[in-house]
Amino acid sequence: MRRSAIIVGCSVALSAAVTSCSAPAATDTAAGQKAPKSGYLATSDASFKGSGPLTVQLDYDTVEAGGLDPQTAATARSWSIESLVYEPLVTIGPKFEVEPLLASSWKQPSATEYVFTLRKGVKFGNGRALTTADVVGSLQRLLKSKAAYAAQLGPVKSVTASGPDQVTVRLTKAYTPFLAALANTPAAILPMKEIDDGSLDIKKEMLGTGPFVVKDHKQDQYWNFTRNTSYRDAENVRISDLKIEIVPQEAARLAALRNGSAAFVNFNNIDSMDQLTGTRDAEAVSQTNSDFYYLIQNSKNPDSPLADQKVRFALNSALNRKEIASVALGGQGRPTGVTPSVLPGACDPAKLPAATARSADPAALKKAGTLRLAVYTSEPAVGQIAQVIQQQLAKAGVTVKIEKYDDTTFNSKVFGAKPDFDLAIGWFAGYVDASMVSRWWNPVQAGFSSTFLNDDKTLDALIDDAGSEPAGADRTKTLAELCARVDSGAQMLPLVTRPSVVGYRTDRVSPTLRAAEGYGNILRDIAHYTLPDAK
Amino acid sequence: MKATAVRVRRALAMRSGDGLLRGAVWVLLALVLATLVGQLTGAGGRPDAIVGPRLQPPGSGWLLGTDNLGRSLLPRLLQGIGTTLLLSTLAVACTAVISTALGVVAGYRGGRTAELILRIGDVLYSFPAIVLAVLVAAVLGPGRTTALAAIVLVTVPLMTRMVGVAARAVARREFVTAARISGVSAPTIMLRHILPNVAGTVAVQGTYALSVGILVEGGLSFLGYGVQLPDASLGLLIQEGGLYMVGAPWLIVAPGVVLVAAIMAINLVGDSLRDRFEPRETRSLV
Amino acid sequence: MDHIRWLLGRVATAALTMFGVSVLIFAAVRAMPGSYTELVLGPLATQAEKASAAARFGLDRPVVEQYWHWLSNAATGDFGTSLVTRAPVAAEFGDRLPVTVTLTALALALTVLIGIPLGVYTGTRDSGGRGGVLGRLVSAFGMSLPEFALGSLVVFLFTRYRLGLTVGNYVPWSQDPLGSIGSLFLPACVLAVFCVAATARTTRDAVLGVLVEPHIAAAVARGEPKGFIVRHHVLRNASVPVLTLVATLSAYLLGGAVIVERLFNVPGLGSYVVDGLDRRDYAVIQAGVLLAAVVFIAANLLVDLVSGLIDPRISVLAKGAGS
pTM to 2 decimals? Predict the structure, then answer.
């Protein structure tokens, strides 16, 4: 599941920060550091003037059916690694606002038309300059592909070059998340000339405009990147050689950070932060994500009590998301509705129907009987959430039997053609617009969920409205209704947000880390990291 | 004179060895008793109940501290000992039955039957143990049944072989030949004459298989294929505790000590049994 | 003549065992729930996409045909292509084999250098009684430390405190041979603890077994010096069970030091195969198990041959016992 967790999420966003985004409180174990800028957990120390290699350790590598082709990449891990090489037209700021990247600016002459002006001086890793043909070709290739992400770009009618450095995209109808969807790695601009003439096999090699180029890669073992000398800002990239080692065992990554053989690592257990106590020069922080864990109640099995909305809603009312966040995630997650609670415009999970219901309906709970709850092994937090849920439902008189499977078995039990589960826990990438992930609650659009999710036309309409309404009070209201509908239907229930924990050596690197992230990219901003002077 | 001295020395070794045996048996009895008391009286509370804040050091509400979900470690430890011992014992009982039956038949019949049985054993024996265990877990899905099946598959081949060798030796002895000539049926010979004479080997190998079983269960837990949540086993507790070694060392110390003590006691019992039943037998179970 | 016939029979049964292993592993990987196509294509893939992926890897052909295709290729050294990396499995094994071999060699060296002398010492010591108890306690303790617990402890201690050796950063042999051995030393030690204890115990038992035999008593009576007796009579006679054990241990180490590899981040064969299991990467699992079985069977064959040389009675006994 870690690999395919994917998917699912997309975003949107939008225009502008509608409501002020409250940057989540970050837990920073380092007391003595300079306070970072708002929206950041850490900002690179500009007084560090060093340059040199950096070693990063991650728990797993990118594994995709489409190889290294970013357009078909479906997992946040692939997006992170591939973002070292590839760049999209726009990117996301610390408060989820859309910012320029390969497009230096854009205009929106109408609700359905976007005109991008390309940045000057952008070159691919082979030295060739970026052209409008690359941009048009890349977006058309993505739209034509069957990649899951293609759907996230919305109702695109045409992509054309409208000037020597201008590209125009027209939509068939307004689509609020369009720019936000463009800001993720699958929408990156590819070297179309090399792809078309066959000199580049994009499934096996990477050639982009970003700060790094690949030197070599050994699947599941390491990646070696070097600075891209053609990168427009190459002189400001301090990391000369970036090594990413794949180290599955949490204890081994912890060890590497302690003894300094890695300068930056990710953790998948929130308590690993405390394990660094007593280690000098090491620090761990927890990044809040829009990603969130969800609980599926399989409503499509007619023999199951879960086919009854009353039972599902009663079970939902028996859940205590605050306790899940504080116990299973050590307080690092936060309750959320279907609009990820860290995003602008998100609904308030405390005001949802199940949370405000005085108590769970005892008659309905009685019907629930014994339920099987499927979880997967690669992420300890999922098992912990399951055990907390088991306790909460036990208090309500419902017996839950946890079934823990390896990731592949879990996928086939839950997402296979014939689902074999009552309850299941997974996570969705939350993206950067509050409406985008809700798309997966429409089984017709999502595809993968149609085997366990009943279609709800009212909900589908709310999802569409949320996607096309411009940011503002109306949209906020639509989003709140959307949340409530999901909560009372109680088929797929958002639980709590999913934090990312990263650790780094303060004597090796001064990173820039956002307080909140929408595309799960823990390597974002790595081109801006500074390094201490070599001794 | 010197040969006598050697014998005396051996006898001495045996006697002090019995001290070890007694100690080992006491340790095992204590563990079984602790489990029974825990299960019967509910000492320390329900193992899966959240009783306090997360990761608390040992204190009044939680004698051995709390884990990462705020559950008291004591009842979980008692449950873990029970799970681990029960699972391994049950698995080894299955192994003993299967291996003894196959081994005795192979030893008595010899020839093609023995070849067939031993070759099948060799096929299983050629799989790396942990890979075989994970494979079983992947096919059956994690849980107690899986751990059981994995332990049986890992321990059956060697035990079958050892029992087969012992049975073969017995089958060649005169009293067996005599029985056969006088028309006693093969099943009767196997049951009456061969089985009692390989009982020692079965006991010794069974004891070692028990310690291997505990190790296999721990290894499976470590790789994520152990018992189902929220059940505890010693392997699972150690695996979970390992993540908290700095901040909450009590989570790994208690189950670690118990696990090592249990395996060690079983190994010592095995050693004593072997000294008694097969003073010359030198193969060991690895 | 008898010897040659025995040898041929032995090789034939080894081949038969290999065949059995190949059938079993091939069937087992296909019995696992979930398939590679489901895993990698993810829940969003359509049936058509899954079918085309299956066709690409030949997974849509009849199982017997797949098996035959795989086996005949494997016989020529072509173990197929990893479904995940699309690289030849044989090449990956070629990269990882030296790592595993070095790790095994280190652990075995420790085992032989410490385990055998320890066993001989505790087996022949004058105050045999106490030596026996102590030896027994030490070896029982060593055999009771699970790799996952001991390994976690070592990793923790060596990273928390500066103890001279670093853990977790494997240095390839090609880069720095000495550094490579240094980086594998701790994992080898963790592996060796069990092996040393088992070897010491087996050696001690074998020595004790030999000591009570009449020809030793006779040598003692002849007044031969103790060291001489140990070197010439005891060791030779005790070597067969020890050899058997060491062979079994080496095969065990080569085939599956999975847990230690994971803990110490060593890119060896065992963790590659277990990762393959998680991913349903059929070619990798099959090749890994087959390779481990070859090593195991070859090691046993070798031991039988060597034992036959040391003690000609063995081959006859082995035949008699049908093993």
Answer: 0.87
